[in-house]
Write a structure and sequence with these properties.
Strand content: over 45%
Structural class: mainly beta
Helix content: under 10%
Largest sheet: 7 strands, mixed
Order of helices and strands: EEEEEEEEEEE
Number of strands: 11
Shape: globular
Distance between the termini: 40 Å
Amino acid sequence: QVKLVESGGGLVHPGGSLRLSCKASGTTNNTVVMSWYRQAPGKQRELVAGFFSDGLTTTSASVKGRVTISRDNVLNTVALQMNNLNSNDTAVYYCHLLTVRPVNNNWGQGTQVTVSS
């Protein structure tokens, strides 16, 4: 079983920055990717960025250039540095970890990010 604990959300002014962090514990062997998703009110959950175990990363076009994902395999953490935030970035941000053998989608409880003046 995997437990994901997010931290770092909060209220930020437009143009500001936030750093989200997620700590994974439990059975994280066979991790394929650690990712950040977000869900705004009334919208579907969407991928923000992912960090694969082979070192490759993927970033949504909507945040490219403003977001950096990083991962520490020793500490089993994944972080999301977000810069130049705007109101469209307001959402609940979820940490996600995918394992194989067996396939399991693991989710954190979410952390609220609100961008407002």
